[in-house]
Amino acid sequence: MLKFYYSLAPNPMKVALFLEESGLPYEAIPVDTRKGEQHAAAFGALNPNNKVPVIVDGSTTVFDSSAILLYLAEKTGQFLPAQQDRGPMLSWLMFTASGIGPFTGQCVHFKHYAPEPVPYALNRYDFEAWRHWKIINAHMADRPWMISDRYTLLDMAVWGWTRALAFALGADAWDQLPHVKRLFDTVNERPAALRAAALKDRHAFKTEMDDDARRAMFPQNARLKA
Q: Is 176 buried (19+), middle (13-18) or exposed (0-12) by CB count in 10 A?
């Protein structure tokens, strides 16, 4: 059975959604990043970047959420676009991986977790997160899904990060990004999305952002004290 190493962060949740949509049997293995479990040697052997998600499918190990989505889509033949839309799908998937994810994630970090205010960094990441989300919003203005007029792995990739959007950009983000909100709501209504969200009930992840959690999740901070 396929093994899925996960937390409840945006990137693992994309993969959880695909697994639930596809009906692939899998074993969900929690990796509690606030406890530092991603730094364990056994997990580092699966992903040398020490991040979730990771899947182990027999003798094949795949890390990075975009790589996993592509791997699973090609394995199952599900949630791929029409062949003529493969190029746009790859373009938007990389846009999500290299833009939406990093800028939204860094926006969250500097707003909520930085040890001290850094106005320049906060302004940069907030601006870039908004800029990228507005591009998605404009793209979605005249279509039901990201591409192909069909639900694909790309919608799952975007959905993963929409789950963090209000935390990153503020509650009024939905008012300014109505087409993104429509995509978010539409995916959330799918039974597979409800099952993916229910992963939170399978394991009691640490919720406190205490000193131990900060050391596990933000090891770069140790250099500030050196």
A: middle
pLDDT tens series, the chain, 226 aa: 999 999 999 999 999 999 999 999 999 999 999 999 999 999 999 999 999 999 999 999 999 999 999 999 999 999 999 999 999 999 999 999 999 999 999 999 999 999 999 999 999 999 999 999 999 999 999 999 999 899 999 999 999 999 999 999 999 999 999 999 999 999 999 999 999 999 999 999 999 999 999 999 999 988 876 5
Instruction: Dump the DSSP string for 58-101.
Output: TTEEEESHHHHHHHHHHHHT-SPPPGGGHHHHHHHHHHIIIIIH
SS3 4: strand
Q: What tokens appear for 215 in the block?
A: 């050391």
**Vertex 100: Cα angle to 94 and 105 (nearest 5):** 125
Specify the 3-state DSSP secondary structure of 56: strand
Q: pTM of this prediction?
A: 0.96
Phi/psi of residue 34, each to 5°? Answer: -75, -15
Q: Which two tokens stand for residue 193?
A: 């999305």
